[in-house]
Structure formats: C-alpha cells, structure tokens
Amino acid sequence: MYKHVFSIVQPDFTDGDDGATLELVPGDVILEYRIINEGWHNENYLYTLSDDLGWFSDSGSVEINSGEEIELFVSGNVPNEGVSNTLLFTVFPENAVQHVRVASLILEPSLSIRTSPFSTAFSVNPAFPNPFNPVTTIQFTLPMVERWHTVSLQVYDITGKLVATLMNEQLGTGQHTVKWNGTGFSSGVYFLKLEAGSFSQVEKLMLIK
C-alpha cells in the first residue's frame, strides 16, 4: 500500500467504440461515484464534475480514512436533444495534486431505459412527501422475476456518508412500503438508494425542520 493511492468507481457503464459509455433517459438524473482511499493515511480529496454541454456541474471535498471509501451522488439534467456528451470526474488528494485522476464517461441520451430484467417490471414511486418533516414514505414494486428479492434501502447524507439503513432483507414479489422518520437528523439534502439484484435507483430527499 502506497501513501497516496486511491481509485474511482464510476456509474455502471458499457464499453462502447469510443470508450466507457453511459446511456441516460432525458430528465433529472442522479449519478453515483465512489472514491476509495487505498493509501497509508487519511486524505482530504478535492473533486470536480464537468461536461462539455453543462448537464452536470459539481465540486467539493471529502475526507476519507485509510482503507475506506465514500459514495458521492451528483445531480444533473439531460436534455432530450439526442446529442452525446463527455463527462469528466476529476479527483486529487489535497496535499498531493500531482496524483490527480480523471475518469471519463460518454453520455448518450435515450428515450428508453437500458434493457435489464427489471427495466419494465420494477417500479419505484417518488418519496412522498418530499420535502418532508419528519416522515416520508417510499413505495416500490418488485417484479415476478423470481420469488424472493434481496432489497437494500439506505440513506446517505450530502457528503456520501451512510446515515441510515431502512431495509436489508429478502422480500417477495409485489408492492412494498417503507417509511423514513427523519427525527434526530439535521435539515438538509439526503440521498435514498434502493438496490435489488442488478437494479439500483437513487432519489434526492429534502428534510426541512
């Protein structure tokens, strides 16, 4: 293990002719990145997210302990113009700028979600109410692909820190409802991440007190 070693994990992509490609449905989009500190020491990492056409724009800093990782959720808007775009995620340790890393993605707008076993049968309703105080309700439907699904429902704060696990269990096919009580949490933006098999979806929540 070296002093300033880290890695970046990008959103799930396919290997296209021009490089890593991510197909996105036009509209509001949330992407998930991970930064993994594989070095000797705790590090403060600076990051920027930018693209050629202004779909995404974000920057900030995160402190990551040695051997740990953090998730970053970034919001953007993809227009329905049928134009491809290049997204750059740049990260470097604050005290070692020379170790900068840049992860590149080609973004392709699409009118349909990428094909997957869940794309037409798995549904997630927007959390309601949102903004909320102090309780919001999450409702989702599991498809009849198999009898049981292992479902994870977790909440992250604006820095990517996991602050609550609402569910991590096997559920049967059909509709399910989960409530999150934000009592004891600070006002602000949170990200709700739902995973079931190969399906993953992130939603931005706003807790107002």
Topology of helices and strands:
Layout: E1 6-9, E2 14-16, E3 19-24, E4 27-37, E5 43-51, E6 57-64, E7 69-78, E8 85-93, E9 101-109, E10 123-128, E11 135-142, E12 148-157, E13 162-172, E14 174-181, E15 188-196, E16 199-207
Parallel strand pairs: 3-9
Antiparallel strand pairs: 1-4, 2-3, 4-7, 5-6, 5-8, 8-9, 10-11, 11-14, 12-13, 12-15, 15-16
Q: What does this entry look like structurally?
A:
- It contains no helices and 16 strands.
- It is an all-beta fold.
- The chain folds into 2 domains: 104 residues, Sandwich (Immunoglobulin-like); 85 residues, Immunoglobulin-like (Sandwich), CATH 2.60.40.
- The strands form 4 sheets. A 6-stranded mixed sheet has the order 2-3-9-8-5-6, with no helix packed on it. A 4-stranded antiparallel sheet has the order 13-12-15-16, with no helix packed on it. It has a 3-stranded antiparallel sheet with strand order 1-4-7, with no helix packed on it.
- InterPro entries: Secre_tail (IPR026444).
- It comes from marine metagenome.
- This is Secretion system C-terminal sorting domain-containing protein.
